[in-house]
């Protein structure tokens, strides 16, 4: 019995419009005109004999039938995308495209990547560190390391690690005229800030210190530069355990105090459904878990 299908070429327009609740944004995503999106959706509605959108003067919203249809169509397109990745994998078996943040790439991943290459000489890793959540299909990404609350839709998400935040500094700051021995000694040192959500105000409050200005010191948008500043003795950084673990293990940084705060965000390995059928993706995913376990043993700070 032949399948009853809608106009297949119109489905991406419907999916994009349903996700954005905007024909204009859907058109921008697909690089077509607003009229092309409108015609595609009207074509589907005419074929199905139902209304998928309620159209207002400056907005659109899904009808109940449209919302139910959009959920199924979106899931189907995700499965088609995952199948396409698997089907085309033999043509790019030697290249693994990885998406992650600049800080995680620079401070955790890159210092360890030589070990992955040594064990997998036939796989070339290419890193994307735009800071945005990559679209696996559109951007050609095979696997991602994301930092957040989890619950990523349309993909497989595996918990990788939790993280703690605590002051770190160069060993040089444990000596000198004002050695760091207790939290109150911070009043003699410059605070280093990055753009992380747990800031010095939170840590100082937990430490019971109200006579230190939490906004003083030097600030960086990049976690990578903030860590480098701490390594070179420019001050004390409220360091994220994953991003300072290599420097702690090498002795370039030390923790002068015991007080650490647990971050509510966590690291996740994220990839399209079916991607582990590709050896390159499974090899990298397994290696990430192995390296994170080693890091926990070395520093005792990432769980």
UniProtKB/TrEMBL annotation:
Q: Which SUPFAM superfamilies does the record match to this protein?
A: Periplasmic binding protein-like II, Winged helix' DNA-binding domain
Q: What processes does the entry annotate via GO biological process terms?
A: DNA-templated transcription
Q: Which UniProt keywords apply?
A: DNA-binding, Transcription, Transcription regulation
GO MF terms listed in the record are: DNA-binding transcription factor activity; sequence-specific DNA binding
Domain HTH lysR-type: from-to ranges: 6-63
A matching Pfam family: HTH_1
Signal sequence range: none
InterPro entries documented for this protein:
LysR-type_TF_proteobact-type, LysR_HTH_N, LysR_subst-bd, WH-like_DNA-bd_sf, WH_DNA-bd_sf
Q: What protein family does this chain belong to?
A: Belongs to the LysR transcriptional regulatory family.
| Name of the featured protein | Transcriptional regulator GcvA
């Amino acid at each position: 019995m032949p399948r009853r299908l809608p106009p297949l070429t119109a489905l991406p327009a419907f999916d994009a419009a349903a996700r954005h609740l905007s024909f204009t944004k859907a058109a921008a995503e697909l690089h077509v005109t607003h009229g092309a999106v409108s015609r595609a959706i009207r074509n589907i509605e005419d074929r199905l004999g139902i209304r998928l959108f309620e159209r207002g003067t400056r907005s659109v919203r899904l009808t109940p039938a449209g919302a139910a249809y959009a959920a199924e169509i979106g899931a189907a397109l995700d499965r088609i995308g995952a199948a396409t990745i698997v089907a085309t994998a033999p043509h790019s078996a030697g290249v693994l495209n990885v998406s992650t943040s600049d800080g995680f790439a620079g401070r955790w991943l890159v210092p360890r990547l030589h070990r992955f290459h040594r064990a997998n000489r036939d796989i070339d890793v290419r890193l994307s560190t735009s800071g945005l959540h990559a679209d696996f299909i559109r951007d050609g990404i095979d696997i991602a390391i994301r930092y957040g609350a989890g619950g990523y839709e349309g993909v497989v998400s595996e918990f990788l690690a939790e993280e703690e935040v605590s002051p770190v500094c160069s060993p040089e700051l444990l000596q000198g005229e004002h050695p760091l021995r207790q939290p109150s000694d911070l009043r003699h040192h410059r605070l280093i800030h990055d753009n992380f959500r747990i800031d010095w105000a939170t840590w100082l409050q937990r430490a019971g210190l109200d006579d230190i200005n939490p906004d003083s010191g030097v600030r960086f948008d990049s976690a990578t530069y903030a860590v480098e500043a701490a390594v070179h003795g420019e001050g004390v950084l409220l360091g994220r355990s994953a991003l300072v673990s290599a420097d702690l293990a090498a002795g370039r940084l030390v923790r002068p105090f015991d007080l650490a705060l647990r971050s509510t965000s966590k690291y996740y390995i994220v990839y399209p459904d079916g991607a582990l059928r590709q050896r390159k993706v499974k090899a990298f995913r397994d290696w990430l878990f192995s390296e994170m376990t080693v890091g926990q043993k070395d520093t005792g700070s990432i769980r």
